[in-house]
Design brief:
Elements (H helix, E strand, L loop, with lengths): L2 H5 L2 H15 L3 H4 L8 H16 L1 H8 L9 H16 L5 H16 L1 H16 L1 H7 L5 H4 L4 H10 L4 H8 L5 E5 L6 H7 L3 E3 L2 E4 L3 H9 L3 E3 L2 H10 L6 E4 L6 H9 L5 E6 L5 H11 L4 E5 L13 E7 L23 H14 L3 E11 L8 H10 L3 E9 L9 E8 L2
Parallel strand pairs: 5-6, 5-8, 6-7, 8-9
Antiparallel strand pairs: 1-3, 1-4, 2-3, 9-11, 10-11
Helix pairs in contact: 2-4, 2-6, 4-6, 5-6, 6-7, 6-8, 7-8, 11-12, 15-16
């Protein structure tokens, strides 16, 4: 193996991504793009390490505290987590390889002394592996499930009967749901191609997820969670209507509405982040949609030309993402006690977006969280101030159910 190949070993690439997430605030789903230059098998291996370490980080640190009295520097801690995760949870990886390869990275970065320390810790965990795994159930819930104590407190308070099942669901990997592009293929035909299960235009894919991703590149479908697709159904966009999506990126709900409209009418897809608008435009082009108008806009300041003009409005607000913990494991670190600013932003966006809706029109408010203060409480506070709206439907999806994720959607109708 050449020095260039060694520099891009999957374990080293994984460590660099974990460092970027841990110390630079990078998002794992974006940071994983750095693996694109690796061979597919290496990239898959590195991806599993990154996501696995992030999913188990609190637990891994608790185990490491058995062997490490003084907290090591960030990269040493990351290498210890990476090696320990392979030893405990990657059964097909020989324990000797997990130790030796991790120590080799440490030696290259830090020299013999620190590499020897890492080697000693990992070798000890190999010797005590069964004891470590058998002790996991005795850890407190937030350690056992690798989430913040604040998340456990919130779940106990808001879901006293379901909180333990919700935590268990956080540790499972959900299936892939895609939305069929019925302008190009029937849901039944696409489901057959993917050995999936169709429910209207929503298709669940369990085994052939790589094939489903290939079909997205052909414009036959696009990935979209169960709850998100249900929110678009609740919207009920029809042919020839005017729809406004106030926080559109990456575009899934805009695409779903445009497809329900049979590529007629107009969908205004707004987002505050100009660098993300190309994702919406590219997605629309791939799907063959021509009825989208994509533009930069702060959702708290509506377009005056569209006030009281929209038949349907999509308000998928920025949220804590607590329903997407399985897909975005760094969310596990969030503390709901710090969400005050988020609540104010959500309230401002919802109130401003309501002004787009024409009398008799519909607004769907949605989040990918299970925090009731962002969901039911937010809608009730809105209705208390805006008596020109009424709640006609409300759906809560927990990760323990068919959606395999946490999601909330409320359908609000403006009085005629």
């Amino acid at each position: 193996m050449s020095s260039g190949d060694k520099a891009r070993s999957p374990r080293k690439a994984a460590a660099d991504i974990l460092f970027a997430v841990d110390r630079k605030g990078a998002y794992s789903n974006l940071a994983l793009n750095a693996l694109s230059d690796l061979p597919e098998q290496d990239a898959s291996f590195a991806r599993r390490i990154v996501l696995g370490v992030l999913e188990k980080e609190v637990l891994l640190d608790a185990v490491l505290d058995r062997y490490v009295r003084k907290r090591p520097d960030p990269m040493t801690r990351i290498l210890l987590r990476e090696g320990l995760y392979q030893i405990l949870y990657m059964d097909r990886v020989p324990e000797s390889a997990a130790c030796n390869e991790t120590v080799a990275i440490a030696k290259e970065r830090f020299g013999d002394a620190k590499a020897g320390f890492i080697n000693a810790v990992l070798r000890a965990s190999v010797r005590e592996k069964e004891q470590i795994l058998s002790s996991v159930p005795s850890y407190p819930p937030h350690v056992r499930h690798s989430v913040s104590e604040g998340i456990v407190f919130m779940l106990k308070e808001q879901y006293p009967d379901e909180w333990e099942d919700i935590l268990d669901a956080f540790d499972r990997h959900p299936p892939l749901f895609v939305r069929c592009n019925q302008l190009r293929v029937s849901p039944g035909s696409l489901a057959e191609m993917l050995s999936g299960e169709a429910d209207g235009t929503r298709i669940r894919v369990d085994d052939r997820q790589s094939e489903a991703i290939r079909k997205t590149k052909e414009g036959l479908c696009f990935p979209q969670g169960y709850g998100s697709q249900e929110a678009v159904r609740m919207l009920g966009a029809g042919e020839g209507e005017l729809v406004v999506d106030v926080c559109a990126c990456p575009g899934g709900k805009s695409f779903g509405a445009a497809l329900d409209m049979r590529n007629t009418g107009k969908v205004f897809s707004f987002d505050i982040h100009p660098n993300k608008l190309s994702a919406i435009k590219n997605g629309a082009n791939l799907l063959g949609l021509t009825n989208l108008a994509v533009a930069e806009r702060n959702a708290e300041t509506p377009d005056e030309k569209l006030l009281s003009q929209a038949d349907r409005v999509i308000v998928d607000v920025p949220c804590s993402g607590l329903g997407e913990i399985c897909a975005k494991p760094e969310i596990r670190k969030k503390d709901p006690a710090e969400f005050g600013g988020l609540y104010r932003t959500q309230a401002a966006i919802l109130n401003a977006s309501a002004d787009y809706v024409k009398p008799g029109g519909v607004l769907v408010y949605s989040t990918c969280t299970i925090n009731k203060k962002e969901n039911e409480c937010r809608v009730q506070a809105f209705l208390a101030c805006r008596t020109d709206f009424r709640l006609t439907d409300e759906k809560v999806f927990l990760p323990t159910g068919a959606a395999c994720e946490g999601f909330y959607a409320a359908r609000l109708e403006k009085m005629r």
